[in-house]
């Protein structure tokens, strides 16, 4: 056993956590090295000193301060709770509710039968009232005019325009200028 | 009242989770001084230590439902306190606040004045305590945590392993190394 191996086992030796074989090896090393024995005693002393160090107590105001912090925490929590809810719903709950309502409406429209899409209304007149309505005379049936017959009846044909004898149209009686006193 | 003292920590936290605030008060009374000792030995500043213990017990109040009955309550609460303490030390390191190692001990003496005049023996005891406290501050954080939990708080290796979340063998090795380093430091003080 060398010095490093010995040092690795010091705590286990002091706390009696070594196997019988390891313990014999350490004791053999201690017999050969008196300074190692001194080191063991020194470490034991350190451990004892640390164990005997006085405990530290919290100050007299500690509990009051802690209670103050807890009260502040409770108040902060209640404020957050009240500001984050509307009529008992948190924003998250309100959003989820809105989504659910929209989804239900959309699904309802999707699965609604087509016949029910027709408008239903209560008739304003009963069957009897409808039967009592006066019967109108039948409309005279006008002969059906084709495009050709309509063109033949036309007084003028815009396509028969004679460039040599332009038709002079008198618009005098149809035009009245501003300030014209003529009747 | 006698019944309250017979409850285990785990029963008390279960009652607190069910809304019994008296159980919380009992847990606070059981742990505030233990945590104060642990945190003070770790950060070496009495005011900071008290703030950290306040934060720890507030977290117990606000995060009570985070505790699951798969670990000991003490493991859970020491883990919270240890994390707060490490955060504080990192913050202090960033802000480079100096000379706190000297202030911590004096502050404690100011807040907890001795009623009786110090005899030679108690003065020597305080001197020894101050030396050990200074030696602890020289340890790396991962050594400091485990040696305080073992040699001052007297927790088991298994519990320490769970608190610091490292394997049992590593914890044992760190504690051994921390003791050797303390022994060396204190030898130099003499």
Task: Give a verbal description of the structure.
The complex is a heterodimer of chains A (183) and B (190). Chain A has helices at residues 3-8, 10-14, 20-32, 34-51, 62-83, 91-111, 127-131, 147-153. By secondary structure, chain A is mainly α. The longest helix of chain A has 22 residues, at 62-83. The radius of gyration of chain A is 57 Å and the shape is rod-shaped. The termini of chain A are far apart. The relative contact order of chain A is 0.03. The mean pLDDT of chain A is 79. Chain B has 190 residues and is an all-alpha fold. Chain B has helices at residues 2-6, 9-17, 21-43, 46-62, 73-95, 100-111, 120-137, 141-152, 157-164, 168-189. In chain B, helix 2 (9-17) packs across helix 3 (21-43) and helix 4 (46-62) crosses helix 5 (73-95). The chains are: A mainly alpha (183), B mainly alpha (190). The interface between A and B is medium-sized, with 27 and 38 residues.
State the major sheet of chain A. Answer: none
Low-confidence stretches of chain A: none
Q: What is the subunit organization of this protein?
A: heterodimer
The CATH class designation of the largest domain in chain B is Mainly Alpha
User: CATH topology of the largest domain in chain B, what is it called?
Assistant: Rna Polymerase Sigma Factor, Chain: A
């Amino acid at each position: 056993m060398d010095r490093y191996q010995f040092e690795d086992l010091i705590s286990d030796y002091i706390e009696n956590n070594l196997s019988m074989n390891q313990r014999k090896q350490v004791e053999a090393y201690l017999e050969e090295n008196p300074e190692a024995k001194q080191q063991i005693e020194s470490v034991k002393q350190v451990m004892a000193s640390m164990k005997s160090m006085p405990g530290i107590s919290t100050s007299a105001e500690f509990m009051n301060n802690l209670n103050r912090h807890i009260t502040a925490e409770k108040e902060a929590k209640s404020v957050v709770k009240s500001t984050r809810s509307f009529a008992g719903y948190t924003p998250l709950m309100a959003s989820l509710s809105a989504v659910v309502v929209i989804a239900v409406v959309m699904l309802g429209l999707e699965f609604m039968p087509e016949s029910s899409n027709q408008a239903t209304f209560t008739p304003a007149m009963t069957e009897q009232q409808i039967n009592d309505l006066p019967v109108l005379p039948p409309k005279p049936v006008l002969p059906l005019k084709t495009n050709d017959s309509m063109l033949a009846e036309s007084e003028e044909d815009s396509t028969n325009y004679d460039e040599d004898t332009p038709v002079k149209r008198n618009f005098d009686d149809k035009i009245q200028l501003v300030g014209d006193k003529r009747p | 009242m006698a019944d309250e003292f017979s409850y285990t920590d785990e029963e008390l936290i279960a009652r607190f989770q069910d809304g019994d605030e008296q159980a919380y008060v009992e847990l606070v009374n059981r742990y505030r001084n233990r945590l104060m000792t642990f945190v003070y030995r770790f950060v070496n500043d009495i005011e900071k230590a008290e703030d950290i213990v306040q934060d720890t017990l507030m977290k117990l109040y606000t995060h009570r439902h985070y505790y699951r009955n798969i670990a000991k309550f003490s493991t859970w609460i020491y883990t919270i306190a240890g994390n707060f303490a490490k955060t504080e030390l990192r913050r202090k390191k960033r802000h480079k606040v100096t000379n706190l190692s000297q202030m911590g001990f004096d502050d404690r003496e100011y807040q907890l004045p001795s009623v009786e005049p110090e005899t030679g023996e108690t003065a020597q005891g305080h001197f020894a305590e101050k030396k050990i406290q200074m030696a602890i501050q020289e340890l790396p954080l991962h050594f400091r945590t485990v040696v305080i939990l073992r040699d001052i708080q007297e927790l088991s290796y298994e519990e320490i392993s769970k608190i610091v979340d490292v394997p049992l063998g590593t914890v044992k090795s760190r504690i051994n190394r921390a003791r050797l380093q303390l022994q060396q430091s204190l030898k130099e003080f003499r």
